[in-house]
Amino acid sequence: MGSADCLFCKIVAGEIPSSKVYEDDECFAFDDITPQAPTHILIVPRRHINSTDTAGEADKDLLGHLLLTAAAIARDKGFADDGYRIVINTNADGGQTVFHLHVHLLAGRPFIFPPG
Ligand code: 5GP
Ligand code: ZN
């Protein structure tokens, strides 16, 4: 079950509205409320995990599923060939602000590397 005060657990549960992009038994994807690119989708596990820092062996398949889901959404939405950026921010220096692990899927413009 979700973490009581977790924003993304509430979004997954439908207690806070979101613009849903995709869902399955393991994950939920929705548009970021402050998009940093023409397409900016967040893919989150239904099961609460704080971050990659707290993920463990038991989460291995789920983490793989999040990445493959991002790739499938990119293919479905037609921007896979142009390209996209997958980002997972972790803890303070990584820029993580919501502590329910999430994959950012960004597309629709070129991205520089390294990021800021
Ligand atoms: P982080 O900084 O933790 O990697 O990413 C958190 C992301 O969640 C940010 O890009 C932010 O815009 C997004 N976000 C924060 N609150 C909400 C919300 O209530 N709804 C949606 N759809 N996105 C949110
Ligand atoms: Zn959560």
Report a brief summary of the structure:
This protein is α+β, with helices and mostly antiparallel strands and 116 residues long. It is 24% helix and 21% strand. A hairpin with a 7-residue loop joins strand 2 (27-31) and strand 3 (39-45).
Question: How is this structure best described in words?
Answer:
This protein has 116 residues and is of the alpha+beta class. It is built from 3 helices and 5 strands, in the order αβββαβαβ. The chain has helices at 7-12, 60-77, 91-94, and strands at 20-23, 27-31, 39-45, 85-87, 103-107. It has a 5-stranded antiparallel beta sheet, with helices on one face. Strand 2 (27-31) and strand 3 (39-45) form a beta hairpin. The longest helix is centred in the middle third of the chain and has 18 residues, at 60-77. The chain is globular and about 40 Å long. Residues 2-3, 6, 8-9, 48, 100 line the site of zinc ion (ZN). Zinc ion is lined by residues 2-3, 6, 8-9, 48, 100.
Low-confidence stretches: none
**Helical stretch tally:** 3
Determine the fraction of residues in helical runs and give it as a percent range.
Answer: 10-25%
**Percent of residues in beta strands?**
15-25%
- Which ligands appear in the coordinates? guanosine-5'-monophosphate, zinc ion
- Multimeric organization: single chain
Order of helices and strands: HEEEHEHE
Going by helix content, strand content and strand pairing, the class is: alpha+beta
- Molecular shape: globular
Number of strands: 5
Whole-number mean pLDDT: 97
